[in-house]
Amino acid sequence: MERRTRSALLWVALAAPVVSVDRLGLNEPRSAAEQLAGLAVLAGAVAVSRTRPLLAFLLAAALGLVTAPSLFTLSFGPALAVFVLLLGRRADHARPALLAFAGIAVVGTVKIAARDVDPVVEWLVLMGTLLFGAVFPWLAGRYWRQGRELAAAGWARADQLEREQRIVADRARLRERARIAQDMHDSLGHELSLIAVRAGALQVAPDLPAPHRAAAADLRAAASQATDRLHAIIGLLRDEDDEQAPLAPAGESVAALVARAAESGLDITYVDGEDEGEGEAPGAPARHEVTDDTVERTVHRVVQEALTNAAKHAPGAPVTVVVARGNTAETATATTATAETSTAKTAIAKTAAVTTVTVTNGRPGTGSSRAPGKLSGGGSGLRALRTRVTDLGGTLDAGPHGDGFRVVARLPAGGSAPVPPPPPPGGRLAHARHRTALAFGIAVTTGVLLIGGTFAWYAYSRTHSVLDPADYARLRIGETRADADRVLPDRTVADPPLERAPTPPPAGADCAYYRASDELFTSVTHFRLCFAESGRLVDKAVIPTASEADTDTDRDPDPDTGIEEKEQVR
Prior knowledge:
- This protein is an alpha+beta fold.
- It has 16 helices and nine strands.
- Strands 1-2-3-5-4 form a five-stranded mixed beta sheet, covered by helices on one side. A four-stranded antiparallel beta sheet has the order 6-7-8-9, with no helix packed on it.
- It is rod-shaped.
């Protein structure tokens, strides 16, 4: 019901100019049948404007072309603008509208060419009307549509962000659970491994009585089983892609971790220093003092995991921990010595500062039933560790080495891999606004050129077709055309008001029309001069203005020229 009411109100608004323009005398009078036909077509256009906006616009354009070939009409101009605005607002694609504009331009051009009027002025008026009365409102409708679509997309984006925030909150809870699980797995697993190591050392003590030795063996086995059960339970709480927690105990360095493991009975050799072959500049601070804290925590994590695996899988084996902080000077030197063509690569390698952690254990001691390189826990700790190192832009290699096992991690300075910058917000909105502004700019520029050209041509054609009333008065019937050309202007009027002429022109005569004044944008008096085939003037008449024609049909001698309105050879 509301939609029908709006359609009825729209039809009333568009029908008002159709009825009132003729009453006010702003348009050529039309019959009642023509007005009723126009109102019926407008009613049909309003009825289909929602479902078929292109058809509604074409109906309004057809009314304009029927009324005036230049499409410029006060009766149906408002309807044309409204329907093309709705076309831009409701149509999904732009191509049909552009094709419709081109078709209207072609039809109007054909009608103008078929008329006996000045085609240039009429065509420029057609293009100006099509641009300002159709293209501009259509672009406004498109902009209106884009604004509503972007607003809807904004609300949809807001809903999506709310859903994502809920997902992020759930993910944060899961990540917190994963951090707790990881901390329990690595910290408690490490401590249980050290308990097993100490029990193993107590078991092989030569002065320990047999009952105590058996108890130590049971303790060692229980610690190992507890580690395996802890791994199985924690595995249920963790996902493989969970974010790793910062596991380094507060204030504990790698050296403190190694010392604590050595006190538990592990045979550990620890080396901490710069890479060989690369020195520091005098007075420069130690490289490890400026190493990123993330890298330090990861180094601690690598050493802790490697010591835990050595204690579990190679009890009694000697362990060597080497932490080297520096750059790739050794690699650069070797490259230069072996290939003279690698100068560019050497320069790049020298600028890459890295921290290298190497943990190597030998063959398991007597009494261990585990083979070198065999991990009872499935290697999940190393997999998680490799993911963490890779996220920081480094590499981790782990595998058998000689009679034992070796873990090597290389971490770049800075502690994080480069992250591409996020795309600027509002990119789609800015792009849409840029396209709309560009379209409006092109349309405005084209319109200004068309309107300026139309006005210039209009002024030129009007001012160069003016015949001075005094010169008109001196022309006499029977005068030759050559004599008349001396006072006639360069151009003639291309669209004379033939309907206001006092009499029809003589049959077979060649008639020319001239303006009596150079005034623009107003109705002026016109002169008609008709020449026979022999080239002599056979008829001259004064065509009054529209207001004069309505008030006086039988004019007295013209007050300015002093001659009769019509003078013809008898």
